[in-house]
Each structure stands twice: as structure tokens, then as C-alpha cells.
Prior knowledge:
By secondary structure, the chain is an alpha/beta fold. The chain has one domain (about 5-225): 3-Layer(aba) Sandwich (Rossmann fold), CATH 3.40.50. It contains nine helices and seven strands; from the N terminus they run αααβαβαββαβαααββ. It has a seven-stranded mixed sheet, sandwiched between helices. Helix 1 packs antiparallel against helix 8 (about 175-190) and helix 7 (about 155-170) packs antiparallel against helix 8 (about 175-190). The N and C termini lie far apart (about 45 Å).
Amino acid sequence: MKIESPKDLVPKFFDKTAQTYDIVVNLTTFGKDKYWKKEILKKIPPSETILDLACGTGILTLQIAEQFPNAQIIGIDVTESYLNIAKKKLKSHHKISFLKQDAEKLDLTQKFDCIVSSYIPKYCNSIDLITSCINHLKPHGKIILHDFTCPENKIVLALWNIYFVILNIIGYFVPNWRNVFVNLPKLIRTTRWLDDYEENIKKQGLQTERQSLTWNCSTILTGIKKV
Ligand SMILES: C[S@@+](CC[C@H](N)C(=O)[O-])C[C@H]1O[C@@H](n2cnc3c(N)ncnc32)[C@H](O)[C@@H]1O
């Protein structure tokens, strides 16, 4: 039997969840998603060109556009239904475009000052994603990766485990989200995204920095090109 890879989870998680994503991500993170995105935004340097990898419904893309109104921004994602919501949400922003592309095999005709992403690393192969980013990063460019991590404090971890049991039960009543609520905790417990990406970013000659958020429930990893 074929073992399911994190990438196989992407259509299972995202094919039927676009319409309710914004509400669910806010509720299930107790509003922390908003705080985490603010911390991501603080790390984006003044930039002319910004790539939002796995932009989803454009929550972060919109905030980037508001912070950098003159920047040219591209959002890419593999899930059409998510991209359609992002396009509607940002239709008045003329310097933004959205494309359906796989972040591991980016094929864009330009390079970026900053490549930013929230919640994609755990689904991807770190070597492929970092290679793809490096190929599209300008000299002095910055990569910002954010995703869930497992809490280290024993009490927080116990609460985190209980919370996911509750989400698992809620999943029975919200069929479109069931796959996410059941499989996401397993994925977060087993992923080694933070160490893997940090190692591969360093191998590419970039300097890295980690910022742990909310008792390590998520982490931002940044890489800056040394020239
Ligand atoms: C949880 S959503 C996050 C969306 C957005 N970044 C945010 O923070 O709200 C994850 C997104 O990653 C996208 N995704 C997963 N793997 C991808 C890949 N290899 N290339 C592009 N998008 C991908 C999914 O389609 C989904 O829209």
C-alpha cells in the first residue's frame, strides 16, 4: 500500500474548504492567525516585488498589498477554488496577479525581493521548495516561511492534544473540514519542516532566523541572501 505523503493531503484538505476557510482559520486558531500574519508582515522588508506562495484565499496577500501599495505582488496556489476567492477579494488592487502554479515547480518570468508564505512548508519537499524559491529570488532577497509547529512545553502540549481531540469530534459535524481536523494534528506532530527547511536554506548560503510564536504553536523561519 502506498504511504500517503503530505502533498497527497493537499486536495483532500483544500478541494471543498475554500468558501469557509477565512472563518475557520480564525476560529480554530482562536484569532492567533491574525497575530501570526502581523508578525510575518513585520518581517517583509521594503520591496518592489513580492511573491505570496500558496496564497490561498488571499488573507495575507491583502495585508501585504495594504502595507506595500506600490509593490507588484503575485500570489500563487494550486487550488483553483482558493485562488478564485483571492481574485475576488483583491479585484480592486491592480498591482496584484494570481496564478495557478505548484510552489515546488515555480515557473515565473521574474525574480522577487521577498518570497513569503504561510502554512505551506509542511506539505512540500524542502529541497524542491527552497530550490524553487532561490531560483526566483533577487540578490539580497528574503524568504519568509511560516507554519504550525508542535508546542514544546508539556502543559501547552497536553492542552494542544486535547484541543485536537475536540476538533476531531467537531469534524463529524462539519464534513468538508473532517479531513483537516483529523489529519492536521498528525501532520504537525510528524513534520520536520522547520529543521529541514533551515538546513536547506543554509545549504543555499542564506542566513536563517527563527521566531517561535504563541508557545511554539507556529514558527516563522526567514532566510536572507548573503551577497
Ligand atoms: C492553509 S492554506 C493557507 C493559505 C494562505 N497562505 C493563508 O495563510 O491563509 C494552504 C494553501 O496551500 C496551498 N498549497 C499546498 N501545497 C501547494 C503547492 N505545492 N503549491 C502551491 N500551493 C500549495 C493549498 O492549495 C492551500 O490554498
